[in-house]
Design a protein that fits this description.
The complex is a heterodimer of chains A (567) and B (181). Chain A is an alpha/beta fold. Chain A has 22 helices and 18 strands. Chain A folds into three domains: 161 residues, 3-Layer(aba) Sandwich (Rossmann fold); 166 residues, Rossmann fold, CATH 3.40.50; 177 residues, 3-Layer(aba) Sandwich (Rossmann fold). The radius of gyration of chain A is 24 Å and the shape is globular. Chain A starts with a helix and ends in a 30-residue tail after the last strand. Chain B has two domains: 80 residues, ACT domain (Alpha-Beta Plaits); 74 residues, Alpha-Beta Plaits. Chain B has four helices and nine strands; from the N terminus they run βαββαββαββαββ. In chain B, a hairpin with a 3-residue loop joins strand 6 and strand 7. Chain B is elongated. The relative contact order of chain B is 0.18. Classes of the chains: A alpha/beta (567), B alpha+beta (181). The interface between A and B is medium-sized, with 38 and 32 residues.
């Protein structure tokens, strides 16, 4: 069998239903094999789009996302998506064509050392040197990408080797890699100590992250939180892991987190970190982070434990397996829940005194926060929401109120502008029956606007709600606050007419300039067949609050000014 | 439950172990003998800001496995974090942080020293004291092979440097655990 056909067979054996990509010279044999593939290939308009679509697919479905690119520029175009998948632990397999074996190392046409270039961004990578390796490498790639702490795996296949004729032997046996044995169970003794520490805590907090989503452990998290009245906060990546409508929910924490969540971390005596990694956007100034707290850190990746913040009780394991054990141990201790009364009084007091706040718009002005609230109403709060990176992302995280996991898909670690639209394509392909909405910024959207063509030609009906303020808003906010308002390179007023642009692509374009029409316009967009882009004209210079200025502690948080808009 | 009951773990008794050991560490790393493995290890060190002091790579008795021996400063780098990051590389099979008392460590160095007629005898004497070998003699230089601990090699360097050190090459340390019965 031709090696490229064994690639397709192997992908099918892994349960692949959809792939994303673009052909080129070096992966022609693969694309020839794809003609007869039993799974769907979604042809994107840029390899970065294919990469983010694979990520969106993986994040929405929990399955491994797959993207193809040719050698050289095709492969380098994938790199941003690979790095993004690495930082957000997205299970993905990237399959690149490579120049013929005899040309490797000669600076041949469209040759790039993609294996070398992606070393810092991959969980693992393979370059095929013998065509018979293809089934084995595919099998191992899916295993590595999807287990342990998920991440991107690159498979680079030289063109001549994918044309070779080989005997195909399906690989379905369990993968056994001596250098890759993630520990998942959690040490029972450590879990018992953690339960006892929790029992002795007066001001505990559950600090949850993307690991809860990756592990499909929302149910287990709710059980733990409900085993006593443990307050819950989450990182940007963990939103939806615990429902925003749940009573223990304090809101997101970190740079643009709620007052209550950040102050709770600051005053807590015990932090239970669950699938979270104490990123600098969470901790701010490390030396002043959570000065009163002891730390229980539960993570599948041992290297995250005590990397940034020392863990008093480290527990290496899959949170889906560890949390039920911790809940059981804790319940057995039969603690008196009234010991948390004082803590909850404090937390409720903060929530009342310091809610999320913005000055309402006047005369039909659409405040960006209002736009997110309108989206929540129009979608019933049940959409899968993808986002780009910037102010709109933070407002969506603050105001949408995610009640379910895998409904908030964004680029957290790498912060990749232009992520939202292609990720929405991937999410919609993975979950065709769900409402998939991309909340975009005008700075971000244009970075991958070509994927609107993918939406149209591949019939992927995503709805793009563009929060249009004519700025690269978050950068503008920083220039306003920290650089004496010297605006530099942030004006986006020269952007195209978005409605006409959408129509030129063959999508539907709508515009909304008055808050009174907003929800109705959104509903219309959601009810319109096919892809829709809604240009929503929002307040130009609105700042995203609360904000902990970079390098500061939670106590230095700046809240939204009241009464007169500071600008 | 009340704080301080025997069943409870008192929060004030919980501590984080120190991260920096303050001494030199020798890591003996078994890796799969596959293309690009050294690049993965070296790349990890550079992007995480870990500074390798010495590095030696060679085969083991199993041709599918290579050994990387590297030394780094535990006063600057949290060794625990370094080994955990290394373990994340799929091709890394086993890492041993060699305990100084239970380890035999050796390094080899070649010194090319200027040797005029008047100091030649003295250099030969140094070589004898250090149980070093003279491996090449030319009209103006002498090349000496020294094997031993890093300290010994550095001591030899201090002795010959005043005579004019033309060139020096060091292999980096290799290490093996002392025999266990």
């Amino acid at each position: 069998m031709r090696a490229a056909d064994t690639l397709v067979e192997s992908l099918q054996a892994e349960g692949v239903k959809h792939v994303f990509g673009i052909p080129g010279g070096a992966n022609l044999p693969t694309y020839d094999a794809l003609v007869d593939a039993p799974f769907r290939h979604v042809q994107t308009r840029h390899e970065q789009g294919a990469g983010h679509a694979a990520e969106g697919y993986a994040k929405a479905s929990g399955k491994v996302g797959v993207a193809f690119a040719t050698s050289g520029p095709g492969a380098t175009n994938l790199i941003t998506a690979i790095a993004d998948a690495m930082l957000d632990s997205v299970p993905t397999v990237f399959i690149t064509g490579q120049v013929k074996t005899e040309l490797i190392g000669t600076d041949g046409f469209q040759e790039a050392d993609v294996l070398g270039a992606t070393l810092p961004f991959v969980k693992h990578s393979f370059q095929v040197t013998d065509p018979r390796q293809i089934p084995e490498y595919v099998h191992e790639a899916f295993h590595i990408a999807g287990t342990g702490r998920p991440g991107p795996v690159l498979l680079d296949i030289p063109q001549d080797l994918s044309r070779a004729d080989i005997d195909y032997e399906p690989r379905t046996d369990p993968v056994d890699l001596p250098g890759y044995q993630p520990s998942t169970d959690g040490n029972v003794k450590q879990i018992r100590i953690a339960a006892k520490a929790l029992a002795n805590s007066r001001r505990p907090i559950l600090y949850t992250g993307g690991g809860v989503i990756n592990a499909n452990a929302s149910e287990e998290l709710r059980e733990l939180a409900g085993s006593d009245r443990f307050p819950v906060t989450s990182t940007l990546m963990g939103l939806g892991g615990y429902p925003a409508s749940g009573e223990a929910w304090l809101g997101m924490l970190g740079m643009h987190g709620t007052f209550t969540a950040n102050y709770a971390m600051d005053k807590a005596d015990l932090i239970v970190a669950i699938g979270a990694r104490f990123d600098d956007r969470i901790t701010g100034k490390l030396s002043e982070f959570a000065p009163n707290a002891k730390v229980i850190h539960i993570d599948i990746d041992p290297a995250e434990i005590s990397k940034n913040i020392g863990a008093h009780i480290p527990i290496v394991g899959d949170v889906k397996l560890v949390l039920p054990k911790l809940t059981r141990e804790y319940r057995a201790l039969q603690t008196d829940p009234s010991r948390l009364d004082a803590w909850w009084d404090t937390l409720r007091g903060w929530q009342q005194e310091h809610p999320l706040y913005y000055e309402p718009g006047v005369d039909g002005e659409i405040k960006p926060q209002f736009m997110i609230e309108a989206m929540h109403r129009a979608t019933g709060g049940e959409a899968i929401l993808t986002s780009d990176v910037g102010q709109h992302q933070m407002w969506a995280a603050q105001y949408y109120g995610f009640d379910q996991p895998r409904h908030w898909i964004n680029s957290g670690g790498l912060g990749t502008m232009g992520f939202g639209l292609p990720a929405a394509i991937g999410a919609k392909v993975a979950c065709p029956d769900e409402q998939v909405v991309c909340i975009a910024g005008d700075g971000s959207l244009i970075m991958n606007i070509q994927e609107l063509a993918t939406c149209v030609t591949e019939q992927v009906p995503v709805k793009v709600f563009l929060m249009n303020n004519g700025y690269m808003g978050m950068v503008r906010q920083w220039q306003e606050l920290f650089w004496d308002r010297r605006y530099s390179g942030v004006d986006m007023t020269g952007s195209p007419d978005w409605v006409k642009l959408a129509e030129a692509f063959g999508a539907t374009g709508l515009r909304c300039e008055n808050s009174a029409d907003l929800e109705e316009t959104m509903t219309r967009a959601l009810e319109t067949d096919g892809p829709v882009l809604v240009d929503v004209q929002v307040t130009r210079e609105e700042n995203c609050y609360p904000m902990i200025p970079p390098g500061n502690a939670a106590r230095d948080m700046v809240e939204a000014p009241r009464g007169s808009q500071v600008s | 439950m009340e704080a301080g009951t025997p069943q409870a773990v008192k929060l004030e008794d919980l501590h984080v172990p120190g991260q920096l050991s303050g001494r030199k560490h020798v890591l003996s790393i078994l890796v799969e003998n596959k293309p690009g493995v050294l690049a993965r290890v070296a790349g990890l060190f550079s992007r995480r800001g870990f500074n390798i002091d010495t590095l030696a790579v060679g085969p083991t008795d199993d041709p599918s496995i290579s050994r990387i021996t590297l030394t780094l400063d535990g006063a600057v780098h949290p060794i625990d974090q370094v080994t955990k990051q290394l373990h994340k590389l799929i091709n890394v099979l086993k890492i041993r942080d060699m305990e100084p008392e239970e380890t035999v460590a050796r390094e080899m160095a070649l010194f090319k020293v200027s040797s005029a007629v008047e100091n030649r005898a003295e250099i030969i004497q140094f070589a004898e004291i250090f149980r070093a070998k003279i491996v090449d003699v030319a009209r103006r230089t002498m090349t000496i092979e020294v094997t031993g601990s890093a300290d010994k090699i550095e001591a030899f360097e201090r002795m010959v440097r005043p005579h004019g050190l033309v060139e020096m090459v060091r292999t980096g340390e290799i290490a093996i655990a002392r025999g266990q019965d």
